[in-house]
Amino acid sequence: MEHEITLIVNGTARRARVPARRLLSDCLRHDLGLTGTHVGCEHGVCGCCTVLLDGRPVRSCLTFAVTVDGAELTTVEGLAGRDGRLSAVQRAFAECHGLQCGFCTPGFLCTVTALLAENPAPTDDEVIDGISGNLCRCTGYQNIVKAVHRAAELLAEEA
Amino acid sequence: MKPPPFTYHAPRDLAAAVRTLAEVDGKVLAGGQSLIPMLNMRLAAPAHLVDINRAEGLGGIEADPAGVRVGALARHSEVERSGAHPLLTRALRLVAHPVIRNRGTVVGSLVHADPAAELPAVLAVLGGAVRVARWDGGAVAVREVPAAEFFVGPMESAVAPGELAVSAFFPALGAHDGVAFEEVARRHGDYALAGVCAVVTPRGAKVACVGVGPVPVVVDLGDLVNLDSGAPDPRAAADLRAAADLRAAAEAVREATEPEADIHASAAYRRHLVGVLAERALREAAREGAAARGA
Q1: Residue A68: which residues within 8 A CB-CB, separation 6 or more?
Q2: What's domain A88-158's architecture?
Q3: Is B89 part of the contact surface with chain A (CB cutoff 8 Å)?
Q4: Are A48 and A40 in contact (CB under 8 A)?
Q5: How many Cα atoms occupy the beta-carbon half-sphere of B250 within 13 Å?
Q6: Residue from B152, B285, B280 nearest B206 by CA
Q7: Domains in chain B and their CATH numbers?
């Protein structure tokens, strides 16, 4: 049996017909064509599929699309401004080389966006705890941590 | 890595939820942070899933002087942020990663009853209870299950088929009680190899250990450890005695546990570890309690 659902994705209401077992990650990628959300491990370990659900980061691979019918979601596609200008977090990642292959990046960007919204000036330890649920096999994390601090600076300057 | 098909139910209130559970052989979906990985890996394939996320009246955190009642839909992060119970807050910081805690529920963790999970130990050491509901044919019937009877075995709680855990009650701490939760995990956010949750009161001390038995292992240490055990000056005679008491307490904890070996650690290592962690947790809790008392 299929379910008719509506998701507010990046400010736009999107409808989809999905079976109950459709993971939110697959719904975003396959039903809505938003392939920016990446799927890594599909059991909640890698963090690549992290999206913002009503402003809070969650694993889209550990959520059924039908459960969040009616919810507001932000994916990596929705982080940049309407004029296409990258968000402060995205610019900081580019500036600090916080990515190499880019596979984990959508998850990091969503996690860090929420982290800085809640804690605009995190300490090193808070950054490390905040991103502990996202795996990156390229960077060794040092530049990601730098990018989080840089994003905090940019956000403070632009506030 | 996709969940097997199932019939989906999304009841709108408690009565509808337990009626559905009485009719079908269903698994309850709340936060899903343990259940959905198991479905994705096809370790579980329930025919019916009863999603309680839309059910009214199952959320909420109610605190009163007697303790804190946490509803079935209260997320880990919500309870952590509320700061309603200091020991619960401390334990929640050790549960998985912040992103998982945005979705996972406290009651779900209890019902899941992983022997290495933190929250069952908190319920056990405080002597809390879980409220469980079922449909008795005409109305919702509710029973309270004390923590000592709630954890039946590894990944097995007292919630029977057809029942729904609706809330958990965590008794409040006294004004002069100190608490601590110490654990060692291979990686940040992993289940612990062993962990110890300690409560030290002016009258005595109690610990609950995780990862070293089929269910949380509660050890009542009586007045072996007290608030003086946290005193900071090891040269004072009272403190030497306190240090000896802590070592004796750690030994009592080691003897009470039955750790098993697995790929992550041997049984002997876990037994050693739980003693070290017990000593650390008791000292920390005693220190906190002594500070609260103004000692």
Answers
A1: A7, A24, A53
A2: Orthogonal Bundle (1.10)
A3: no
A4: yes
A5: 22
A6: B285
A7: 1-52+59-172 (3.30.465.10), 178-293 (3.30.390.50)
What confidence tens digit (pLDDT) does each residue in A20-30 have? 999 999 999 99
User: In DSSP terms, which residues pair with B207 in a beta bridge?
Assistant: B198, B219
pTM of the model: 0.95
Q: What is A2-78's CATH number, 1.10.760.10, 3.50.50.60, 3.10.20.30, 3.20.20.70?
A: 3.10.20.30
For residues B233 and A5, give the distance between their C-alpha atoms in angstroms, rounded to a whole number.
Answer: 64
Q: How many CA atoms lie within 13 A of B218 on its CB side?
A: 18
Q: Between A and B, how many residue pairs show a Cβ–Cβ distance under 8 A? A: 87
pLDDT digits (tens, 9 = 90+) for A121-151: 999 999 999 999 999 999 999 999 999 999 9
- Cα B178 to chain center, whole Å? 18
The phi-psi region of residue B223 (left if phi > 0; otherwise alpha if psi is between -120 and 50; otherwise beta) is: alpha
Distance from CA of B51 to the nearest CA of A (A): 7
For A13, residues 6+ apart whose C-beta sits below 8 A from its C-beta are: A6, A7
pLDDT of amino acid A54: 95
User: Is A56 in Cβ contact with B77 (below 8 Å)?
Assistant: yes
Which among B204, B203, B232 is positioned nearest to B220, based on CA atoms? Answer: B204
What is the pLDDT confidence band of residue B231, given thresholds at 50, 70 and 90? low
Chain A positions in Cβ-Cβ contact with residue B46 (cut-off 8 Å): none
Closest CB to B99: pick one of A23, A26, A59.
A59
Asked whether this complex has an ipTM greater than 0.90, the answer is yes
Confidence of residue B229 (pLDDT cuts 50, 70, 90): confident
User: How confident is the model at residue B199, as a pLDDT?
Assistant: 96
Alpha carbon distances (Å) from B228 to A158, B153, B220, B222, B239: 52, 36, 17, 14, 8
- Per residue in B95-142, pLDDT (tens digit) is 999 999 999 999 999 999 999 999 999 999 999 999 999 999 999 999
Asked if pLDDT for residue B3 goes beyond 80, the answer is: yes
Residue B161 at interface with chain A, using a CB cutoff of 8 Å: no
Nearest-by-CA chain A residue for B11: A67
Can you give the pLDDT at residue B232?
61
Query: Which of B99, B102, B112, B188 has the highest number of chain A CBs within 10 A, making it the mutation to test binding with A?
Result: B99
Of B6, B33, B188, the CB nearest to A44: B33
Antiparallel, parallel or unpaired: β B217-222 and B205-210: antiparallel
Decide: B17 and B50 in contact? Cβ < 8 Å.
yes
The residue extents of the domains of chain A are 2-78, 88-158
